[in-house]
Amino acid sequence: MKEYNMFEDQYSLRGRVYNILRENILDGKYKPGENLIELKLANELHVSRTPVREAIRQLELEGLVESIPNKGVIVKGITKKDMEDIYKIRIVLEGLAARWAIEQITDEKLKQMKELYELMEFYTQKNDIDQIADLNTKFHDVIFTSTNSNILQHILRDFQFYVKWARHESLTTPGRKEQALKEHYDILKAFESRDAEAAVKYLTIHVENSSKNVLKKLAEK
What we know:
It is a single chain. By secondary structure, the protein is mainly alpha-helical. It folds into two domains: about 5-75, Winged helix-like DNA-binding domain superfamily/Winged helix DNA-binding domain (Arc Repressor Mutant, subunit A), CATH 1.10.10.10; about 80-220, Four Helix Bundle (Hemerythrin (Met), subunit A), CATH 1.20.120. Helices cover about 75% and strands about 5% of the residues. The chain has eleven helices and three strands.
């Protein structure tokens, strides 16, 4: 029997269906309380019911949906408590990622970080929230890949995915995109100096400020 590999699974049919459904839940296309109908989803995605059923089972294990007798599969989505937990865990894991990455980061990766920061600066002036959010993700991903740890990369990328929509919303808050730009500048300079303590400090400040802003946005909904 072949051993299960979570990294390979994302490219399987089940993995692709799972990723689509999860993204639709996290992006708000499927609203909390909405009923997910297996046959309807299979028709929409042009697949059989089997990968949809397997994907829904995985989403249930993840807590994003709930199977209720006589009601079917109901979307739960991400709660405020989930978001609080994600940001608390991110602070710890991104600090660890910074320490590991600084020990191994190449000049080429540092160049990528600088280029991404400069693009963030450009699009901040243009007030292009979509581009800023995308560049933010790519900036952090350079740090994740520089750890050379598949496990840590996988976990942190998942967390980035969970907060994708919330980050976008938070960047619309007056002054937040400029504040985030300054935070990324401080992180970049810490990496260029290969100062692990400073990198952890500024990443922590960045994630804490992001958390406060996101949770405030959630409270307003």
